[in-house]
Amino acid sequence: MSLTAAFRPMPDAAPRSAVRMPVGQTALLDPVGSDGGGRQIEVLEGVGRVLCPCEETEGMTLAFLHSGDRLMTDRLCSEGICIEALTGLSFVVHNQPTEAGVCTVNEWTLQLLRIRHFKTADLRLQALMGLLVSRLGRRMGDWCTLPFRLTHERIAELIGTTRVTTTRLMSKARAEGLFAPEGSDNGLRVSPLVLRLVHEDI
Asked: Which InterPro entries does the UniProt record give (predicted)?
């Protein structure tokens, strides 16, 4: 039994205008368009998480997408694919994949798989944050900033540990100055030191 019923399905026909999703909303995308061909998602603005809706994988994260990224839906799960808006998200759907652009999911999946092979959970957490900052963040003063937060449960899924262990690791990393203390904003501030630590441990 799949989990597809838990997500809002997108219409069969590709929208003529941009699809806009608020933070926290998840949409299920059919892998094929109304003409039986594949679909291509092109992100216009914001950050989204791509996940598999199958029950067996429990919402496994496949990639993160931001402005300019493209996703070929027919190259992934046959039950469809889901996009969760981590920030306000805007994208367009093309019924026929265009020649321009490259689907970035395979690269993300490879990088996330690589993180799971770091020896300790501390290193896996640092490697994950280093990857997210380098791909989706920006430098602001003494910190690198991600425009979204991930729950400890989601981080646990990505680094292959439990939520309780992740909470302990995050507290330890904050005490060491690798992450800024919890604030009122919706982002996460990461020390540039994390990037250097990851490169030293590769």
From this structure: HTH_CRP (IPR012318), WH-like_DNA-bd_sf (IPR036388), WH_DNA-bd_sf (IPR036390)
